[in-house]
Automatic annotation (TrEMBL):
Protein's UniProt name: B-agarase
DNA-binding found in the keyword field: no
UniProt entry tagged with the keyword Repressor: no
Organism expressing this protein natively: Agarivorans gilvus
Domain Glycoside hydrolase family 42 N-terminal: 453-622
C-alpha cells in the first residue's frame, strides 16, 4: 500500500499479509519465505550463507516527507531457542542508508521501532546532542527502540527506495515470524529522557539488573566473595608462560615464536610449549572515562606535545590543573543533566576527573571527563589510603589466570608488563607530522604516506617507546602497531581501490605515494602510449599522469593496475614498520595492524603477509563464518583475532554493541561459539575479546561508544555467564587444538 502524503495519525499499515501470495514488494536472498498466520515466515540460511536478507522495494519510491515525526515499525518473533540480531537498513533514492539493529528474543512477540523523523535525530556516528552512540528511547513505550548503528541519521524521506532486513555473519540459521509492517506516529519526546539516568556508581539509575550495586557495603560484600573464589588459583595444566604442558614440546628460543605443529599454525612459548593466545583487550583506565558536560579555560589545560606517540583516547588521564578547575563552566546542559552525582572538586573521589582535548565525535569538542570505574576501584580497594590501583592490577591478573586466559590482550596498560605471571601483548601508534593518503572512506583517519621519510621517523619513535615499555622481556608475546586502518571497503571499485584512485588524482609533487605510482606504471608500460591504449585514456605524457588524472572509467586494465598500486602502497607501509621494529626489538613478533572486517582487502592482506610474523584481524561477527575466510589457505600465515565482542541490553545499557545477544546468559553462549570457531581453525593462533570493562553507559569520552561488552561492569563486578563460558573454552582449548 502507498501511504498518503499527509500528517500521520496513529499507525498506517504498509502491507497486507492476509492474501495467498506475498506482496510484490518483497524479495529474498538466501532466505526461504512464505505466509503463515497472516505473517511473513522466513528461514534465514545463515549457516551456509554469510549474508541473508529480506528486501522491500516499492515500485515507485515512497514519499514519507510530510508525515510528521514517525517511525517505521513491525512485529517479530523468533521461533528458535536463540535470538536473532537483525539489521534494518533503509535507503533513499541517493543511496544514503539509515541503519539500525534489533535483537529478536526467542519465545515472545515484540514490536520494534525505527525512528526516521524526529527532534532527537542530530548527528553522525553518534548523536551530537547527547554524545551517545545510540540514545535511549526518547518517550515511554513498551515497544523496542531500535539501536542506532551507522549511515545517515536523516535520509531523504521524500524518496525511500528500499528497506533491507539483513542477518549476516551468523553461525546459526534463523526462523522468524514478521508482521504488521507499518508507519506509526512518534509520541511526544519526554524533555527529561536523558536527565538523571546515571547513579553515583556510574550505573543506569532507572533499571535493575543482576550486576547492579546499591551501596558501598554491597560492593564490599561482592568483592569479598570474588576474592575468595580467586584464591583457588590459576587454571591447571599450563606452563610458566601459559603454554600447554601436555602438548608436543618444540625447540625453546627464550621468546615467543610461531611454528606449524601437526598442520596447524601455533605460537610457541619461550620454553617451547605450544601456546594459544586467549585474552581480553583494554585492561587499562584510558577508555573508562566519560564526558561530564563541563569545560575550562583551554589556556590553563596542558596541551599535547608535538613529539607525542600516544593518541588522545589512549591516554590514561590528562590531569586538570587546579587553576583550570576554577574556570569550570557548563558546555553541554544535556550531558551535565545525565548524572545524579559527580564529586565536588575537593572530594577524595575527585581525582578521577580528567580532560579530553580532542574528540572523534560528541556533544562537545573537548571537555572534562570522569571515570566512574576508577572511582569504584577506589571504593573497593582504597580503604585507609591503600594503593587501590596496585590491588586492582593484582586482582586483574588473578582473574585472568583463574578464568583460564593465557595472556593480557591488546591495549593493556604498561604497568602490567612486569607482572611476570601472565604474558601480554604490546602496542604502538604511528602518529605525528607526515603526509597522508586518502581511501575516500577514512573512518578513523586518513592513512599515512609510507613513502614520506617522516613516516619512517615517526615509526622509529613509536617503536622506541614500545621498547622502553616492554624492556625486552620474554613475557611479551608480540607487538601490534596501529589499528583498523582505512585500506578501503570491499563491495565496489571506488571503495576497494580508493587509495589508488584518489592518489592517481593528486600531483606527484605533493604526494610521495603518487610519485611512486607513476614510476610503477612507467616500469610496467614503458611508454605513455601503451598506458593510453590499455586504459583508454589520452594522456600526452608521463608528466600529465604525474599532475593527476581523475574521472577514470575503471575498465578492467585500470582495475588490474589499481590492485598493483594498492599492494605496493600497503607493502611499503608494512615493510617500513617491520624494519624499524626488528631493528630495535629483534626478539619479538610483529603482529600487523589488526585489519577491520571492513578493511581487509586481499591486496593489503597479501602485502602484510610479506612482512608480519602474524596477520591480525578485528572481526565483529558471531564467529569465523567459513565463507569470507577461504583466502587463509592461499596466504598460509599464522593469524590472530584482535577484537570481537557480544553485548545485551539487560544490564542497563542503551547500546548492546556491534554483535548482540538477548541476555547475559546468551552473551556467554555466543562467546563460547565464537571461540570454538577460532580454536578449530588451523590458521589462527589466538583471539582477544574486546573488552575487559564495559563502556561507560554515557559513552567513552573519545567517541561516545556506550556498549555492554565487558567481562566486568562499571562497578568492577564480573558477568558470571561470561566468566563461566571463558572457563569452559580455556579449559578445553588445548586438548582440542593439539589432540593427536
Amino acid at each position: 500500500m502507498e501511504p498518503a502524503n499527509q500528517p500521520l495519525q496513529g499507525a498506517l499499515p504498509l502491507f497486507d499479509f492476509s492474501q495467498s501470495t506475498l506482496p510484490e514488494e518483497f524479495s529474498f536472498s538466501n532466505v526461504e519465505a512464505n505466509l503463515r498466520f497472516e505473517c511473513l515466515e522466513i528461514k534465514a540460511l545463515s549457516k551456509k550463507h554469510f549474508y541473508t536478507s529480506v528486501f522491500i522495494e516499492p515500485q515507485q519510491n515512497w514519499d514519507w516527507s510530510d508525515l510528521g515525526n514517525f517511525c517505521f515499525a513491525f512485529d517479530a518473533r523468533a521461533l528458535d531457542e536463540h535470538s536473532t540480531q537483525m539489521f534494518i537498513n533503509i535507503f533513499d533514492h541517493q543511496g544514503q542508508m539509515h541503519s539500525r539493529c534489533i535483537n529478536i528474543a526467542p519465545g515472545k512477540q515484540q514490536s520494534f521501532m525505527v525512528e526516521l523523523k524526529g527532534e532527537t535525530l542530530h548527528g553522525g556516528a553518534c548523536n551530537y546532542a547527547s554524545g551517545l552512540r545510540s540514545n535511549p528511547c526518547p518517550w515511554g513505550t513498551k515497544d523496542v527502540y531500535a539501536t542506532w548503528m551507522w549511515g545517515a541519521l536523516n535520509i531523504d524521506l521524500s524518496a525511500i527506495s528500499k528497506i533491507e532486513l539483513s542477518i549476516h555473519g551468523s553461525l546459526l540459521d534463523h526462523h522468524l515470524l514478521l508482521s504488521n509492517f507499518r508507519l506509526q506516529s512518534s509520541p511526544a519526546v519526554d524533555p527529561n529522557y536523558l536527565s538523571g539516568i546515571i547513579d553515583r556508581f556510574g550505573q543506569n539509575a532507572q533499571q535493575e539488573h543482576a550486576q547492579k550495586i546499591h551501596s558501598e557495603q554491597e560492593l564490599a560484600e561482592v568483592t569479598k566473595a570474588e576474592l575468595t573464589e580467586l584464591a583457588k588459583g590459576p587454571m591447571l595444566g599450563r606452563s610458566k608462560f601459559g603454554g600447554y604442558l601436555d602438548g608436543p614440546r618444540q625447540q625453546a628460543s627464550g621468546y615467543f615464536r610461531t611454528e606449524k605443529i601437526a598442520g596447524k599454525w601455533s605460537l610457541v612459548d619461550p620454553e617451547g610449549y605450544p601456546y594459544f593466545a586467549t585474552g581480553l583487550d583494554i585492561i587499562r583506565l584510558a577508555n573508562t572515562s566519560t564526558i561530564t558536560g563541563i569545560d575550562y579555560d583551554h589556556k590553563l589545560v596542558n596541551q599535547r606535545d608535538d613529539g607525542d606517540v600516544t593518541p588522545e583516547d589512549s591516554k590514561e588521564k590528562v590531569t586538570v590543573p587546579r587553576a583550570a578547575l576554577a574556570t569550570a563552566k557548563v558546555a553541554s546542559e544535556v550531558r551535565r543533566a545525565m548524572y545524579q552525582w559527580l564529586p565536588d572538586y575537593n572530594d577524595p573521589l575527585a581525582e578521577h576527573y580528567g580532560y579530553m582535548r580532542e574528540l572523534f565525535e560528541g556533544a562537545v569538542e573537548q571537555g572534562e571527563t570522569y571515570s566512574f570505574y576508577a572511582a569504584n576501584l577506589q571504593r573497593k580497594y582504597g580503604a585507609d589510603g591503600a594503593d587501590y590501583m596496585a590491588k586492582w592490577r593484582d586482582v586483574t591478573v588473578d582473574r585472568m589466570l583463574n578464568w583460564g586466559f593465557t595472556c593480557l590482550g591488546n591495549w593493556t596498560a604498561p604497568e602490567f608488563y612486569d607482572n611476570q605471571r601472565i604474558p601480554f601483548f604490546a602496542n604502538g601508534w604511528i602518529i605525528g607530522e607526515f603526509d597522508q593518503v586518502s581511501s575516500g572512506d577514512d573512518f578513523w583517519a586518513a592513512l599515512p604516506d609510507p613513502f614520506d621519510p617522516r613516516f619512517r621517523q615517526r615509526a622509529a619513535a613509536t617503536v622506541s617507546q614500545v621498547k622502553n615499555e616492554i624492556k625486552d622481556t620474554p613475557w611479551c608475546v608480540g607487538i601490534f602497531i596501529d589499528n583498523e586502518k582505512s585500506w578501503g571497503r570491499m563491495g565496489s571499485i571506488d571503495g576497494h581501490y580508493g587509495i589508488a584512485i584518489h592518489t592517481l588524482g593528486r600531483s606527484a609533487d605533493a604526494c610521495p605515494t603518487k610519485a611512486v605510482f607513476v614510476e610503477l606504471l612507467k616500469t610496467k608500460y614503458t611508454v605513455i602510449e601503451a598506458l593510453n591504449q590499455s586504459w583508454q585514456t589520452n594522456l600526452a605524457s608521463w608528466a600529465d599522469l604525474a599532475k593527476g588524472v581523475k574521472g577514470l572509467t575503471h575498465n578492467s586494465a585500470q582495475v588490474e593496475d589499481y590492485a598493483l598500486l594498492l599492494e605496493a602502497f600497503a607493502s611499503e607501509y608494512f615493510r617500513v614498520v617491520k624494519q624499524e621494529l626488528k631493528k630495535q626489538l629483534p626478539n619479538h613478533l610483529y603482529l600487523g595492524c589488526r585489519f577491520a572486517d571492513w578493511g581487509m582487502n586481499p591486496e593489503v592482506v597479501r602485502a602484510a603477509a610479506k612482512h608480519v610474523d602474524v596477520v591480525s584481524y578485528n572481526y565483529y561477527k558471531e564467529g569465523l563464518h567459513p565463507e569470507p575466510w577461504s583466502f587463509l589457505a592461499d596466504i598460509d600465515m599464522p593469524s590472530i583475532i584482535g577484537e570481537f565482542h557480544f553485548g545485551a541490553l539487560d544490564s542497563g545499557f542503551f547500546h548492546a554493541g556491534l554483535v548482540t545477544a538477548c541476555s547475559q546468559q546468551e552473551r556467554g553462549q555466543m562467546f563460547e561459539r565464537y571461540m570454538q570457531t577460532v580454536v578449530d581453525n588451523p590458521y589462527f593462533v589466538g583471539a582477544h575479546y574486546f573488552q575487559y570493562i564495559d563502556s561507560p553507559i554515557t559513552g567513552r569520552s573519545f567517541d561516545g561508544e556506550n556498549y555492554n561488552i565487558g567481562f566486568v561492569s562499571i562497578s568492577d563486578v564480573p558477568y558470571q555467564p561470561m566468566v563461566d563460558a571463558a572457563k569452559r573454552v580455556n579449559q578445553s582449548m588445548y586438548p582440542k587444538r593439539f589432540r593427536v
